[in-house]
């Protein structure tokens, strides 16, 4: 738990020489590194100032740049934020890199490859978002389940399947305005068959279901607003998400980030709040025509540094509802997620070219078969099923079956059985088989 900042207003009242001592700082614009007291108190203070005086001067310099939002805390105090240079720069890069006027990479517009990226990204986000909330299934096992279409075997796999289906639904819902009923539908999808009380899915928590956010030792980090305030808060959240802000403008990406925070702060459900919050963030970004978000996973970044994610919530709540901390964290996460997508496209394009180079003499292979064999070259021993191939390319069952049987006849896959189902395995000497076929 980060240290709570001192009350800078009280310090000013109690120190008659405050403005005289801090004048050199107050005459400058607010620093752009928006540091929290928990970090500032460990740094060397400017000469002649205590850490508390330094902090008070920083807070005063931030005040003119703060913009309030409709989100209120449990005591009806508003949340607010300011735009630092770093956030403004990242917002520009998000607009340029993911907006509706983007010149989309060929891999994401080519009908032969787009579905692979769409499905792969949906799987990636579903898996990592669930892992953030405690799902213990490995990525390989989870992908095998989703591709094969088999039923989940435990709660962790069920969480991942729910998230995958939710992300697919979010893409379809992007043109709809947000309503409480739509939020309940999303929560129902996220939590289906994973709650101790199944009846709690798709409804607000009740007064007798008071919850807190705490760690394994029982230390409480956040106490959400009371249950009787949730209907009104949900209505206000939906109005904000839909852009009903007649007196002010908030950048669409900032609004999506605040929506993410808002549901996390209210914690309106007994469980599944984090997954629902991130799903709403995706809805908001897609609704505002940030089309590349069909292919981006923020949870992958969050999972690698979960403490920074949770700390961004705590910094905001402990420092007088200053959302700048959470916004700055999330714009950086988004930027890194965009970079990851482009790196992934580059890797896959290189791999695909390698595979196509090896397969260039096989004009009879279609793009789905080329994609599978390219994957098999990098993952020898992988087992492929008709259902998994069908799901990976959104093709008909008979089309997927013909693809695999043809590859087996060519000797590029070995055919076998697992129970009653046909399976196809990538042989360890696949490169040699391709080379031999080219030579013949």
Task: Tell me what the structure shows.
The structure is a single chain. With 440 residues, the protein is mostly helical. It has three domains: 8-65, no CATH class; 83-343, Orthogonal Bundle (Fic-like fold); 361-439, Winged helix-like DNA-binding domain superfamily/Winged helix DNA-binding domain (Arc Repressor Mutant, subunit A, Orthogonal Bundle), CATH 1.10.10.10. Helix content is 57%, strand content 6%. The chain has 20 helices and seven strands. The protein has helices spanning 8-14, 18-26, 37-40, 51-62, 85-98, 106-109, 114-132, 139-148, 155-173, 180-191, 230-241, 252-266, 273-287, 299-304, 306-318, 324-358, 367-378, 386-393, 397-409, 430-439; strands spanning 67-72, 78-81, 213-214, 220-222, 383-385, 414-418, 421-425. It has a three-stranded antiparallel β-sheet with strand order 5-7-6. A hairpin with a 5-residue loop joins strand 1 and strand 2 (78-81). Helix 7 (114-132) crosses helix 8 (139-148) and helix 9 runs antiparallel to helix 10 (180-191). The radius of gyration is 26 Å and the shape is elongated. The N and C termini lie far apart (68 Å). The mean pLDDT is 86.
CATH architecture of the largest domain: Orthogonal Bundle
Give me the secondary-structure category: mainly alpha
- CATH class division of the largest domain: Mainly Alpha
CATH topology of the largest domain, by name, is: Fic-like fold
Q: How are the strands of the biggest sheet laid out side by side? A: 5-7-6
Helical content stands at 55-70%
Biggest sheet: strands, sense, closure? 3 strands, antiparallel
Overall geometry: elongated
Number of strands: 7
Mean pLDDT: 86
The helix-strand sequence is: HHHHEEHHHHHHEEHHHHHHHEHHEEH
Helices, by number, come to: 20
Q: Strand fraction band?
A: 5-15%
Distance from first to last alpha carbon = 68 Å
| Low-pLDDT segments, ≥5 res | none
Work out the count of structural domains: 3
| Fourth CATH level, the homologous superfamily of the largest domain | Fido-like domain
Over the alpha carbons, how many angstroms does the gyration radius reach? 26 Å
